[in-house]
């Protein structure tokens, strides 16, 4: 099949945009609370609206791809995100923010489903692993860049710095007390240009592999009767919930408690146990240590948690022998954990304080930690070892 380096670059750009639009939520939390006068529970409904969209759209998106193909789904996804961004930009209030973030989440969910099979086809299966890692690096880079753009843009708007015609124009559109709304005008522009770029691009024909196809409803029901499938679904809920539970509340925690504003060698089960344990220890230090310790420990939680997603996913798919496409859809639906856990933390934060509310994350991380003991993959990842292991033994 003919490869398309251009489409690979387009997909990598899409990964950047997804991360840029998704990972801005955490830094915005203090501004959302102040701008809309929200309790912690109400502000937690905003990431809830965003991530619940993954639960709504993940499986239907797979079915849409089979019917309408990748190009139309990607255009639709960015169109939905465009509308969502425009709503909040033009009507900056709490209710429009909830609806806006739900629409943006729907668009991002659609993109998440479509881009991996497209990357495999345009880059070639032999290069898929390399491009997947490169895409994750770009995703991470965008999550680093987006708060910096937020900081510079809101500072310029908020301090009446008319250093360019664009900022001057934005200054006339953005409410003075809500300079961060300028970000959503930027999102509108980004989504518009992505729609234009995708529309004029020629896409290769993509033949979905069996583990990339969305199965029938009966297949999903059969899978959900499997205890391992349910446990791994819960694991994904816990992972994304833990990730977003930390990401969404770091800024507000540091502001509330410290007055700071945030500008192949071993078995995969052992890796999961080790890194989850280190994430738990880092979170403990972040929540109950000094401000200097929190500034270091919170990023360490993210660092140690960063390896967990692919391990959970690979262990899950290696635990069933068939219907991998449907199982993948169920696992991706577990991204709704990013909606549920921050909401729980927000509610607990209102009632017992944010520090102890964030202690809920020890439960979700604890469940992920347990995977290393109960997971029974059909195929264990191949490892390098000087010692001979008995069959079925954890490396």
3D architecture notes:
The protein contains 16 helices and no strands. With 395 residues, it is mainly alpha-helical. Helix 3 packs across helix 13, helix 9 packs parallel to helix 13 and helix 10 runs antiparallel to helix 12. The radius of gyration is 21 Å and the shape is globular.
Mean pLDDT: 78
CATH topology of the largest domain: Growth Hormone, Chain: A
Shape-level CATH architecture of the largest domain:
Up-down Bundle
CA-based gyration radius: 21 Å
Individual helix count: 16
Quaternary organization: single chain
Number of domains: 2
What percent of the residues sit in helical stretches (DSSP H or I)? over 70%
Which series of helices and strands comes N to C?
A: HHHHHHHHHHHHHHHH
The rounded distance between the terminal residues' Cα atoms is 39 Å
Unreliable spans:
381-395
What share of residues are in beta strands? under 5%
CATH class of the largest domain: Mainly Alpha
- Sum up the overall morphology in one term: globular
How many β-strands, per DSSP?
Answer: 0
Largest sheet: none
Q: What would a concise description of this structure say?
A:
With 395 residues, the chain is an all-alpha fold. It has helices at 5-22, 25-36, 40-90, 94-123, 128-158, 165-173, 182-200, 217-224, 227-258, 268-288, 291-305, 308-317, 324-333, 337-352, 354-357, 361-374.
Could you give the topology of this structure?
Blueprint lengths: L4 H18 L2 H12 L3 H51 L3 H30 L4 H31 L6 H9 L8 H19 L16 H8 L2 H32 L9 H21 L2 H15 L2 H10 L6 H10 L3 H16 L1 H4 L3 H14 L21
Helix pairs in contact: 1-4, 1-5, 1-7, 2-9, 3-4, 3-7, 3-13, 3-14, 5-6, 9-11, 9-12, 9-13, 9-14, 9-16, 10-11, 10-12, 10-16
């Amino acid at each position: 099949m003919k490869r398309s380096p251009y489409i690979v670059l387009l997909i990598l750009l899409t990964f950047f945009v997804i991360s840029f639009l998704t990972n801005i939520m955490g830094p915005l939390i203090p501004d959302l609370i102040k701008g809309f006068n929200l309790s912690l529970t109400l502000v937690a409904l905003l990431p809830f609206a965003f991530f619940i969209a993954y639960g709504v759209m993940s499986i239907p998106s797979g079915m849409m791809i089979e019917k309408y193909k990748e190009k139309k789904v990607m255009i639709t996804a960015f169109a939905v995100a465009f509308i969502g961004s425009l709503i909040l930009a033009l009507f900056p209030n709490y209710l429009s923010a909830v609806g806006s973030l739900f629409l943006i989440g729907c668009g991002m969910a659609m993109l998440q489903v479509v881009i991996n099979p497209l990357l495999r086809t345009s880059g070639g299966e032999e290069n898929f692993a390399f491009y997947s890692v490169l895409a994750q690096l770009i995703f991470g880079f965008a999550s680093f860049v987006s708060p910096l753009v937020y900081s510079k843009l809101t500072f310029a708007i908020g301090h009446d710095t008319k250093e360019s015609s664009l900022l001057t124009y934005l200054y006339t559109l953005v409410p003075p007390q809500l300079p961060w709304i300028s970000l959503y005008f930027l999102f509108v522009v980004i989504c518009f240009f992505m729609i234009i770029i995708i529309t004029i691009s020629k896409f290769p024909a993509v033949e979905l592999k069996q583990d990339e196809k969305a199965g029938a409803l009966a297949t999903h029901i059969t899978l959900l009767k499997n205890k391992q499938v349910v446990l791994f679904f819960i694991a994904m809920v816990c992972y994304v919930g833990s990730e977003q539970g930390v990401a969404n509340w770091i800024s507000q925690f540091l502001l509330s408690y410290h007055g700071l504003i945030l500008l192949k060698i071993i078995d995969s089960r052992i890796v999961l146990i080790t890194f989850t344990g280190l994430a738990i220890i880092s979170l403990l230090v972040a929540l109950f240590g000094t401000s200097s310790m929190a500034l270091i420990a919170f990023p360490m939680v993210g660092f140690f948690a960063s390896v967990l997603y692919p391990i959970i996913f690979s262990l899950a798919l290696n635990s069933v022998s068939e219907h991998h496409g449907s199982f993948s859809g169920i696992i991706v639906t577990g991204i709704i954990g990013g909606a549920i856990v921050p909401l729980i933390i927000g509610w607990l934060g209102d009632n017992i304080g944010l520090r102890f509310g964030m202690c809920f994350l020890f439960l979700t991380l604890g469940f992920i930690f347990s995977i290393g003991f109960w997971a029974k993959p059909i195929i264990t990842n191949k490892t390098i070892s000087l010692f001979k292991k008995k069959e079925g033994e954890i490396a």
